[in-house]
Amino acid sequence: MADIPNLRRGFRFQWEPAQQSHVLLYPEGMVKLNASAGAILAEVDGVQSIQEIIASLESKFPEAGSLSGDVEQFLADAANQHWIEWL
Amino acid sequence: MRCSDASAGPPLWLLAELTYRCPLQCPYCSNPLDYADREQELSTEQWLDVLRQGRAMGAAQLGFSGGEPLVRQDLPELIAGARELGYYTNLITSGLGLTEAKVQAFAEAGLDHIQVSFQASDPELNNAVAGSKKAFEQKLAMARAVKEAGYPMVLNFVIHRHNIHQMSDILTLCESLGADYVELATCQYYGWAFANREGLMPSRGQLETAEATVNHFRDDLRERDHPMKVIFVTPDYYEERPKACMNGWGSLFLTVAPDGTALPCHSARLLPIEFPNVKSMSLEEIWYQSPGFNHYRGDSWMPEPCRSCDEKDKDFGGCRCQAYLLTGDADNADPVCGKSPHHDRILAARTAAEHATAGLDDLVYRNTKNSRVFFRK
Ligand code: SF4
Ligand code: SF4
Question: Does A30 contact B60 at a Cβ distance shorter than 8 Å?
């Protein structure tokens, strides 16, 4: 499996103050993301590999323990929904 | 008297209907029948101000539509302004008036997505419905240009009895053009489509065949792990419960019409309710305080059978425009509902669709001449 995730063209990730959450915007649609989905997608920049993303999140949230399972699961779902692609 | 509702959330979607001008004449157009009487349009500065206010309130999705938004010469400026504010900007166009240069220029201004509407999968039917001889070729060329420039692309087809047999051809065409999303939107009967309902509404048999074809195509896409998404909006006239129209009145959507009238949905203008104008009121006041926007919020306005119905949180009593058009009173339950005492009007429309014989020539096309007839009434 290729291991650098990137948002597909047409998808935009941003913080919305009015909703107090991160959202994913795409043609005529919007998903409001929960805190962990927001934290993961914030790391997806087309440069960091999935291992680097996991390491970065584990250092930001040391109390959360190992995050590899959650991150892998979420990114697999996101790829299934065609939000992201693997570079 | 209905007073302000502080519990309403912010408008997350803003639809800017920039103009009612359009080179096409679709007989199902959702613009008001008397649009020819409403030629005044907001200025560039007024639109930018609306966009700023909407964004400050929390709107994140922005649609530029019309009419045909491309006839506005200031479109690149509006796109750039919207993008800078942080909107996700959607351009909803017929493709007429678009050029490769504009597709590029809009991308540079920050446009996120372009939706191109088609009338059919072949030039003959497409051009007959659109009322334009060159429409189809132009749409194909522009769909290709949109993809070439790297945009995500939605192709939209309004479905009615004269093109509903084309589902398979339509989807094949969309796939070959590289569409990311396909919207097969069965006619909703407001505006021009209501005037033409008998000539547009498919029969139940036609609808069932179409649904089966679409589902089959979807399965095939899934098997191939193909990212094209197909959205099929089925006609509520064949349902026993109404749709939760606009996700609830004044809950997410805010439309601003070309002359600045603010509406909870783009067809609400036909209701006998006074709606505020952005020229004389702030968007904030319009959304949270104006009687027009508070009119159908919550459920205290509901008469029976909705009032005591345990499904009212699900569908909010359906669509106010449909209730008004079919029963003469916008407070009534949407007659699509099997519990509505006016449900027989929907049944009658279904029966009429079984026996309809009207051809394309019998439809009333959306143009200024026909519009003037409506506004003289
Ligand atoms: S529905 Fe047809 S006539 Fe109406 S605005 Fe769209 S393209 Fe123009
Ligand atoms: S009676 Fe009213 S609230 Fe109940 S299902 Fe019908 S339309 Fe919806």
Answer: yes
**Mutual orientation of helices B343-355 and B204-223 as an angle, nearest 10°?**
90
How buried is B135 (Cβ within 10 angstroms: 0-12 exposed, 13-18 middle, 19+ buried)? buried
Q: What amino acid occupies position B74?
A: D
Residues of chain A positioned with their CB less than 8 A from the CB of B58 = 16-19
Residue B4 has pLDDT above 50, yes or no: no
Spatial contact of B153 and B116, defined as CB atoms under 8 Å apart: yes
SS3 content of chain B, % helix, strand, coil (to 5): 45, 15, 45
Instruction: Write out the two tokens for B286.
Output: 């319009």
Contact list in B for residue A17 (CB cut-off 8 A) is 58
CA distances from A67 to A60, A80, B233 (A): 11, 20, 40
pLDDT exceeds cutoff 70 at A1: no
Q: Let me know: does B183 contact B154? Beta carbons within 8 Å.
A: yes
**Which residues does ligand 1 sit against, CB inside 6 Å?**
B 22, 24-26, 29, 31, 66-68, 94, 366
Specify the pairing of strand B229-233 against strand A84-86: unpaired
Is the ipTM reported for this complex over the cut 0.90?
Answer: no
Q: Is residue B58 within 8 Å of residue B15, measured between CB atoms? A: no
Reading the block at residue B168, the tokens are: 């398979």
> CA–CA distance from B92 to each of A27, B31, B128 (Å)?
11, 14, 21
Confidence check: pLDDT of B1 > 70 = no
Closest CA to A44 of A55, A53, A35, A57: A53
CA pair distance B150, B157, nearest whole angstrom: 21
CB atoms within 10 A of CB B305: 17
Q: E strand or H helix at B231, and its extent?
A: strand B229-233
A17 interface with B at CB cutoff 8 Å: yes
Cβ proximity of B129 and B121 under 8 Å: no
Per DSSP, what are the bridge partners of residue B89?
B62
The DSSP line for B28-72 is T--S-TTGGG------HHHHHHHHHHHHHHT--EEEEESS-GGG-
* The pLDDT value given to residue B192: 78
